[in-house]
Specification:
single chain; 6 helices; 68% helix
């Protein structure tokens, strides 16, 4: 692409994100997810791949990748209600009690707030659709 002077768009970065994930290259996947967000247009990434990225980032303590993921799921209203936020527990314990890091705590908070908003919206929809 560089040789042909072709500028990648968000769809290209989304595909490169998928390739990096399939190769297990979480650092490159983080960079590609950041670039998807920077391009401004919305590219669709499969929720299952995003959840896998979430799990892998938590395993290696990649909070930069988690922050890019939080940007993506908030901006694209991705349903994360099935994602296990309890996986943050050990990291939260560490960053609250042993090596305080507000940025990492706020990254967790963004996921928690997003998940809470989705759960409330689903509850409201269920209430609106139920017979009176």
């Amino acid at each position: 692409m560089v040789k042909c002077r072709v500028e990648p768009d968000s769809e290209t970065h989304a595909l490169m994100f998928a390739i990096a994930m399939s190769q297990g290259n979480i650092e490159n996947a983080s960079v590609m997810l950041k670039k998807v967000q920077q391009n401004g247009t919305q590219a669709i990434i499969a929720s299952s791949r995003l959840e896998d990225f979430f799990e892998q980032c938590l395993k290696i303590d990649n909070f930069d990748g988690l922050a890019y993921l939080a940007d993506y799921v908030e901006g694209n209203n991705v349903d994360t209600t099935a994602w296990d936020l309890n996986r943050f527990r050990s990291a939260l314990n560490f960053y609250l009690n042993h090596s305080f890091n507000l940025n990492k705590i706020m990254t967790f908070t963004r996921f928690y707030v997003h998940q809470a908003k989705l759960a409330l919206a689903k509850e409201q929809l269920d209430r609106d659709l139920s017979p009176a």
